[in-house]
Write a structure and sequence with these properties.
96 residues; alpha+beta; 5 strands
Length: 96
C-alpha cells in the first residue's frame, strides 16, 4: 500500500462538531504543497452521550478526490487530530 497525504485546514469547531477542509493526495499536484487545493470538507460530529466517539461524513469532495477515497481514508485519522492533537488550525497529514 502506498502512502497517502493530505493538507487539512480547520473550518469550524463547536461543541457539536468539527469541520476540516481537506485536499486530495498532494502527489496529484506534483508534490508541490503550495499548489495543493484544499476545497473538500469533512464533518466530524460528536455522538451525544458517547465521549470520544465521532461520526464522519464528507460534505464536499475535494478536487482530484474523484471517488471520495481520500476523504474516507482521512476518517480513520481524524479521531487523533481532534482528540489527541486538539484540532490544530492547519496540518499536513502523511503516511508512508
Amino acid at each position: 500500500m502506498r502512502g497517502m497525504n493530505a493538507k487539512l485546514i480547520l473550518k469550524e469547531k463547536t461543541d457539536e462538531k468539527v469541520v476540516y477542509c481537506y485536499s486530495a493526495d498532494s502527489s496529484t499536484f506534483g508534490n508541490r504543497i503550495e499548489d495543493v487545493i484544499v476545497d473538500g470538507e469533512i464533518e466530524c460530529a460528536f455522538v451525544p452521550g458517547e465521549p470520544g466517539i465521532i461520526e464522519c461524513q464528507t460534505l464536499k469532495t475535494a478536487t482530484n478526490d474523484n471517488d471520495g477515497g481520500q476523504a474516507e481514508w482521512l476518517y480513520n485519522h481524524l479521531w487523533r487530530v481532534i482528540f489527541i492533537e486538539n484540532c490544530p488550525p492547519t496540518l499536513f497529514f502523511a503516511t508512508g
